[in-house]
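Quick one, probably user error.
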């Protein structure tokens, strides 16, 4: 791809998604289509799945229970008049608390159906592609423990054609020229191209990049790195990192860098046992740090230690700024999952910490080479449009699942008030770009995690993604690789 193509894209403005609102020609897609199926009447079940009717609020003659282990499945065979997108509403009730279960359509993972609370309620998986004629919709156990009343299928509303029209204005008003140029590039590509990314602790010469290049003849456009081993409680144990050097090297080669930070809790909070050693200190299970207490002023020493750690990472970000390297900066990731300590005290404490980090880096340390990627993974954890440039989601759907996670993508478009770029900031499997464009779920970029998601001893690991899919993705005309990036230093000139 030459620079002229980018110029055309900039000239032509935002993405044209009207194509994905069409009916795709097969059958007769009815935008008013609606189908209501009582689970207890029509579903085919296996394992322990059975009908009950004691929990009030259901429709029809009852509901299904017994989705408890892998052999317990519920299958609906449905016929729709035309190929296209449908919302699948698994009307259900939880036994208690939040539950999610897996949905497969014609054998392909389509997403999870979620319920929270014991009343029968809507649980809508949006924009699932069904073929004209027969389709198999199957629910399998994710967490299990729901009462499934009915499946309601409706034609999906048309995509809001403005979802890809996002502002290139960064939340840091003093953002560097290079950060602004990178954001402009991301905005210009958004909805039209997907930018390839790959985590590798050793940079472009790491096994992941070597393996991808040997198979596809291409390098990922984005290198993903981690500040983990710059964290004081790890440095105290002798860790060393070259992540900043790898980032500067990759930038010189014309690539884009992203950083996360597995923030090892400060030393006084580490259990450091054989089960939970010091090096696992970013996990909630390995530390007794109480972020809620710290952010409420009840642990001033802890607050000072958090500032100390932020200031250490600021030094590394400063080195990148001095080298004029813009960074897709994704701190405090996967918070709502609770498995990392910054997510273990709930959203209020997390949001306070996120804002503290933002203010300390930008205002105290004068770090302005960052594009802020929020990765809290749940709307309750959103710190606000004024702190976020990009919304990221990490998805590990299992092995050899190439779904573009369409339903999740569209759910995320509703989280910010302003429109933001949406990216798949970590993935286990690659997703099929053809399906992403078919569904109109065009993630800005992806970032496959390191290790056996790609390589095993410098050879390809096909455990999560098979060779043919690596070849397809990295040679896809709508997927941008390192060689296809424009000169980002002079982008837009
Ligand atoms: Ca029912």
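Nope, works fine. Designed sequence:
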């Amino acid at each position: 791809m030459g620079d002229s193509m980018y110029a055309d894209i900039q000239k032509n403005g935002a993405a044209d998604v009207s194509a994905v609102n069409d009916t795709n020609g097969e059958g007769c897609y009815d935008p008013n289509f609606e189908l209501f199926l009582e689970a207890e009447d029509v579903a085919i079940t296996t394992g322990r799945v059975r009908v009950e009717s004691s929990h009030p609020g259901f429709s029809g003659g009852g509901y299904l229970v017994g989705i408890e282990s892998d052999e317990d499945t519920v299958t609906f065979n449905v016929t729709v008049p035309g190929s296209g997108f449908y919302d699948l509403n698994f009307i259900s009730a939880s036994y208690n608390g939040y539950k999610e279960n897996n949905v497969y359509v014609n054998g392909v993972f389509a997403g999870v159906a979620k319920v929270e609370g014991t009343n029968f309620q809507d649980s809508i998986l949006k924009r699932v592609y069904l073929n004209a004629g027969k389709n198999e919709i199957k629910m399998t156990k994710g967490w299990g423990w729901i009462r499934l009343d009915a499946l309601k299928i409706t034609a999906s509303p048309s995509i809001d054609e403005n979802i890809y029209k996002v502002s290139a204005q960064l939340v840091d008003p003093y953002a560097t020229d290079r950060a602004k140029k990178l954001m402009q590039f991301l905005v210009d590509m958004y909805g039209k191209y997907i930018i390839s990314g790959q985590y590798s602790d050793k940079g472009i010469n790491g096994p992941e990049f070597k393996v991808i290049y040997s198979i596809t003849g291409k390098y990922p456009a984005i290198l993903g790195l981690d500040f983990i081993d710059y964290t004081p409680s790890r440095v105290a144990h002798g860790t060393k990192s070259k992540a900043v050097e790898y980032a500067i090297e990759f930038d010189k080669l014309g690539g884009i860098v992203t950083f996360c930070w597995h923030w090892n809790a400060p030393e006084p909070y580490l259990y450091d046992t054989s089960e939970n050693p010091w090096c696992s200190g970013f996990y909630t299970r390995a530390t007794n740090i109480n972020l809620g207490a710290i952010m409420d002023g009840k642990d001033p020493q802890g607050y000072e230690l958090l500032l100390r750690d932020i200031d250490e990472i600021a030094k590394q970000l400063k080195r990148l700024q001095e080298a004029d390297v813009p960074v897709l900066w994704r701190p405090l990731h996967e918070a709502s999952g609770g498995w990392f300590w910054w997510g273990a005290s709930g959203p209020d404490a997390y949001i306070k910490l996120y804002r503290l980090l933002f203010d300390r880096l930008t205002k105290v340390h004068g770090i302005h080479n960052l594009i802020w990627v929020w990765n809290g993974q749940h709307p309750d954890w959103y710190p606000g449009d004024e702190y976020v440039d990009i919304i990221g989601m990490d998805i590990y759907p299992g092995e050899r699942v190439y779904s573009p996670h369409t339903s999740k993508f569209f759910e995320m478009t509703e989280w910010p008030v302003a429109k933001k770029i949406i990216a798949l900031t970590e993935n286990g499997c690659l997703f099929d770009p053809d399906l992403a464009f078919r569904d109109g779920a065009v993630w800005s970029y992806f970032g496959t995690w390191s290790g056996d998601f790609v390589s095993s001893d410098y050879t390809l690991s096909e455990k999560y993604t098979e060779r043919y899919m690596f070849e397809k993705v990295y040679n896809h005309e709508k997927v941008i690789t390192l060689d296809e990036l424009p000169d980002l230093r002079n982008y837009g000139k």
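The chain is about 25% helix and 25% strand.
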